[in-house]
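Example 9 (inverse folding). The structure is encoded as follows.
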């Protein structure tokens, strides 16, 4: 049923305009980005919440005044224009807007992103009826990310759907607030269901240089095989900011060959501090010019001009990684040896930029702040945004296993946080078993924690537990519903 409006009208410039139309115009004027999302969603028949979640995953709704990302993406919707993909040109064709306007005008960019997403859905044969269901858009979202592989495409799309489940509250550079209410959707992954889940325990690689990191190799043209530290001393750690999203950066480092090869040893996610290793430390990543031979490079998801990306979870995870690298190579934990990209001789880069909190970061690296030498990871930072601790069990003096729950998506998560032997890989595990389903376990030699082990468990009982040192905990089936 359509809502009823009173037949009041206002006289404006000699014309009678219905009050609802005037109210809509006033709202759009007061909240232009929210209005642009609403208009684009209606025009191209794209679920509005999905469109906002995708934009937030890409840019936190910051168009960066038309400046490109590291991978050549523009605007709030990160319309990519590079040798591997040209969503920008496709948006121009679909909307009739010029490329220059699509780059710099937020409303035009949002419309362009919606048009491209809809085109992907059309290419996949998504019907008019199916377009009303956000779950049916998963493959189109995966295509929008221009990922280098099905695994990274799944990582990209899962991020968008996780954000929609958790809800979004974003503040634009002009101070406007745009929200998405938490909405759990079970996406229809189609062929991407067979892709590797890079956020799952199976993606953890025992042979990475840093325990707990995921291994996703960069394209061989984006780094140089070497034999460090035998061939070159490693005495620097370089801090970067990706100028793009986590999944987008991983994909960019996997793309090649290209005119300007680039990579880093590690990429760290903003929301929860998840770490992906892309180049072995023995090899030279192409990340810091004259420092490539002597350094390990760490990229952090985000943009230098937007402080919202630099979360405590990211700082803590990165600091733990930096401390581990420094200890293994005997690198002093000071600002002479742990440097920003901007400090590399001969560079024209500015990252990590003015919003990077070096004081907090170095306190976490050295253990001089935030609880001394305590584990820099928390169960919330390991499991991710939206998860809250609902139970825990002490594993002697070696650690604690935690059970968490996310009310937005009905999922549990288990993480074992070590208390001793921090920075040293020791046997640690975490497991979660939803009643009626197989147990999922993350087990190995880890420096700081085991997990996260996540599973959908709404209206189900769960059994959970873990091990650290010689202590083990196993729960009965509990926390039902």
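The amino acid assigned to each position is listed next.
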């Amino acid at each position: 049923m359509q809502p009823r409006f009173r037949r009041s009208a206002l006289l404006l410039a000699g014309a009678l305009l219905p009050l609802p139309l005037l109210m809509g115009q006033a709202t759009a004027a007061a909240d232009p980005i929210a209005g642009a999302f609403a208009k684009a969603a209606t025009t191209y028949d794209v679920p509005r919440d999905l469109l906002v979640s995708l934009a937030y995953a890409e840019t936190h709704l910051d168009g960066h005044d038309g400046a490109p990302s590291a991978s050549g993406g523009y605007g709030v919707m990160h319309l990519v224009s590079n040798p591997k993909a040209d969503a920008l040109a496709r948006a121009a064709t679909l909307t009739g807007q010029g490329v220059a306007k699509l780059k710099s005008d937020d409303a035009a960019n949002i419309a362009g992103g919606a048009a491209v997403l809809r085109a992907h859905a059309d290419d996949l044969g998504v019907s008019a009826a199916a377009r009303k269901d956000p779950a049916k858009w998963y493959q189109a979202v995966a295509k929008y990310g221009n990922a280098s592989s099905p695994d990274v495409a799944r990582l990209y799309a899962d991020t968008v759907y996780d954000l929609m489940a958790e809800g979004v509250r974003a503040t634009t550079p002009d101070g406007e607030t745009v929200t998405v209410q938490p909405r759990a959707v079970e996406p229809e992954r189609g062929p991407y269901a067979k892709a590797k889940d890079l956020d799952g325990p199976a993606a953890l690689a025992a042979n990475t240089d840093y325990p707990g990191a995921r291994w996703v190799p960069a394209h061989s043209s984006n780094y140089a095989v070497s034999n460090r530290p035998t061939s070159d001393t490693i005495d620097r750690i370089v801090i970067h900011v990706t100028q793009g999203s986590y999944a987008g950066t991983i994909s960019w480092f996997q793309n090649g060959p290209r005119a300007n090869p680039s990579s880093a040893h590690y990429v760290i996610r903003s929301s929860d501090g998840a770490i992906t290793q892309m180049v072995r430390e023995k090899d030279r990543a192409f990340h810091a010019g004259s420092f490539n031979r002597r350094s390990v490079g760490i990229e952090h998801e985000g943009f230098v001009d937007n402080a919202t990306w630099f979360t405590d979870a990211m700082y803590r995870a990165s600091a733990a990684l930096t401390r581990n690298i420094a200890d293994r190579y005997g690198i002093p934990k000071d600002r002479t040896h742990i440097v920003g990209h901007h400090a590399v001789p001969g560079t024209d880069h500015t990252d990590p930029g003015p919003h990077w909190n070096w004081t907090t970061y170095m306190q976490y690296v050295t253990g001089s702040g935030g609880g001394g030498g305590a584990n820099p990871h928390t169960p919330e930072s390991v499991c991710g945004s939206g998860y809250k601790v609902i139970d825990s069990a002490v594993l002697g003096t070696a650690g604690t296993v935690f059970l968490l729950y996310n009310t937005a998506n009905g999922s549990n998560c288990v993480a074992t946080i070590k208390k001793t032997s921090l920075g040293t890989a020791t046997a640690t595990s975490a497991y979660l078993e939803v009643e009626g389903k197989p147990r999922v376990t993350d087990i190995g030699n880890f420096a700081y924690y085991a997990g996260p082990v996540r599973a959908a468990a709404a209206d189900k009982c769960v059994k959970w537990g873990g091990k650290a040192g010689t202590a083990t905990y196993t729960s009965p089936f509990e926390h039902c519903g």
